[in-house]
Specification:
Elements: H1 3-16, H2 23-33, H3 37-54, H4 56-71, H5 74-122, H6 126-131, H7 134-152, H8 154-176, H9 178-185, H10 188-224, H11 226-234, H12 238-290, H13 296-337, E1 359-367, H14 378-400, E2 418-427, E3 432-436, H15 443-449, E4 458-463, E5 466-467, H16 473-479, E6 480-483, H17 494-499, H18 507-516, H19 520-524, H20 543-557, E7 561-565, H21 573-587, E8 591-595, H22 599-604, E9 607-612, E10 615-620, H23 622-628, H24 630-645
Parallel strand pairs: 3-8, 3-9, 6-7, 7-8
Antiparallel strand pairs: 1-2, 1-4, 4-5, 9-10
Length: 646
Amino acid sequence: MHGAGWWAYIRHDEKQDHTKITRELLLRVWDFAQPYRQAVIGLLITILLISSITLVSPLLYRDLIDNAIPNGDLTRLNWLALGMIGVPLINGVVGVWQRRLNSAIGEGVIYDLRRALYAHLQRMSLRFFTQTRTGELMSRLNNDVVGAQRAISNILVSLVSNLVSAIVTLGIMLALEWRLTLLGLAILPLFIIPARRIGRILRRLSRRSMELNAEMNASMNETLNISGALLVKLFGREQREYERFSRDSDSVRDIGVRSAVTMHWFFMLLSVVSAVGSAVVFWVGGHLVLRGEFTIGTIVAFGTYLTQLYNPLMALTNAQIEFSQSMVSFERVFEVLDIPVEIAERTNARRLTQVKGQIQFEDISFAYEGLGTEKIGLDEIARFTWFRADESHLKRGKEKAGEGSDTNPEAGEQATQWALQDINFSIQPGELVALVGPSGAGKSTITYMIPRLYDPTHGRVRIDGQDIRGLTLNSLAENIGMVTQETYLFYETLRANLLYARPDASEAEMIAATQAANIHDLIAGLPDGYDTVVGERGYRLSGGERQRMAIARVILRDPRILVLDEATSSLDSLSEELIQHALQKVMQGRSSLVIAHRLSTILAADKILVLDGGRLVQQGNHEELLTQGGLYKTLYETQFKVDMAQ
C-alpha cells in the first residue's frame, strides 16, 4: 500500500474507533489485580531497584574517563571495573525475583478471569448456548483472557520501570547540564502526537483481529468435531470447508499485516525523532566541550543518559499503545461477564424436598424473542440481552406508575413468534403423560421448562404447588431426570459417564442401574468393562447403546420426575425393544412426561397431550381422543397405527 493510501486508511480507521478507556474499566481491571496486591508491591520494589542500579553505569564511565585514566589511579580503576561487573550481576539477580513476581501476577489473573468467565457461562440459559457459536466462547476463554493478562504482567512492568527510569534519568541530566536537558526535551511532543493517533488505530485493529480469530476458531470447532467432520465427509464438502477456512485465515493474516505495518511506521517515526534529538544535543554539547565548558566524560555520560531517556520515552509511548490494545481484551471479557443471566436463582430460593411429583402448567406462553434462529456472536447477544433488560425495566416502571403492562400473548402476536401459547395441563404424582404432535409443535420446549432450562414468557410452572422460579436450580436437577433424543457422552470411561449423574454411587448401585437399562451385559463383555473409554460424544457406541447408557445414568440418579424423549424410530428392532423395556422399568412409580413416538407408550399413558402449532389442541386418554377425532385421530391413522401393524 503506497504512503498516501496508507495514511488515508489510518485516518479512516481513526474515525471508526469510538471506544474509550474509562475510569470504570480501569477500576474493574484493578479488581482482578487486587488479590495480588503484595506481589504487585514487591514487583514495584524490584522495578525501582533495577531502574536505580542501571543509572549508576554512566556515572562509572564518566569517573573512568575524567578521573581514573587521566590521573593514573589504579585503585580507582579496579573498583570502577568491579562496579561495571556488579551492576548487571545485581540487576540479573533482582530481575529473576521480578520475573517470578510478574509471572505469579499474570498467571493468577488468567486463572481468575477464566474461572469467572467459565462460572458465568455455566449459569447461562440453554437459549444462550443455542444462539452462540462454541468456537467464539473458546476464543473468549483463551485468546482474550491471555490478551488481558498482558495488561497486568508485561505492560505493568514496562510502564512503571520506564516511568521511574525516565524520571530519575531526567533528574540526573538536569544536574549534569540543564541547558542540554531542555534541548533534549524540546522534541518530547513529537513522541506524544503520533503515539496518541496510532494508539487509537491499533486499538481498533486489535479488536477486529480478535473478532476475526474468534470467527476462525468457530469455523474450526464446527467442522473438526465428530458431528461436523461426519457431515463434511458425507456430503463431500472438504474443499468447500477448506476454502471457507482459507478465507477466514486470510482475513486474520491481513489484519495482522495491517497492525505490523502500522506499528513499523510508528517506530520508524520515533527512531527518527530520537536520532534528531540526539544529534542536536551532541552537536551543541560538542561545541561546549570545545569551549572548555564541558568535560569529555560528562558529554559521554550525558549521551548515555540521553539514550536512557529516549528509550524509556519510546517504551512508554509503546506501552500506552499496548495497554490500549490489551484493554480491548478486557472489554471483550467483561462483555461476556456483563451478559445478564436469563434464568437466575432467587436469593431466597427454597430447596425442592420430599417431592410427590405433581406438575402444573398454568397459562404458559413462550417465545424465542429477539435472537432468531441463527447462531450469532456474543456482541449481538450482549446487545440483545441489554435491550431485553432495559425493556423489562421500562415494563416494571409502567406497572409501578399504574399504566399496566400487556401480559396477553395475543397482543404482541404480530411482532413475536410464539413457540407455545396458553398451555394449561397438570400431571398427578405417578402419572405417565404422553406428548404427541407434528414436528415443531412445541413438544421439546415444554419438556425443557420442567427442569427450568427455559423460563416461560408468560405463566408459571409448578411442582407440588410451588413455582419452580422460587426453587433452587440444584434441587430441581436432583429431582428431575431427563433423557433427550440426542444422547451426549463425555470422552471418558463408561464408569465416569455413569457416575456423572451421582458421583457417590457405589459399584453395586451403578451395576443395578445398567442392568435395569439392559446395558450391563454389553459393558461387562468389553475388554476393559466399565473402564472402557468412549470416543468423542460417545461415538464408539451405537445409537441404541448410547440411549441405554443415558437411561442407566438417569436410573442411577433416581429422580422423582422423569422427562423423556422416546425417539426410537431410527433404531433397530432389538435396540428399540431393549430401550422400551428399560423405559418401562424407569417410569414405574414416577411422574413422567414423555414425547411419545410409539403406540405402546401412548396406550400406557394416563393422559395424552396433543400439540399443534404451539397450542394444546386436545388432551385425554387414547379412547377419548379417538372418539373426539381431530388431530390425534389423524396422527393415529397416519403414524401410530402403522407402528401397531409392525
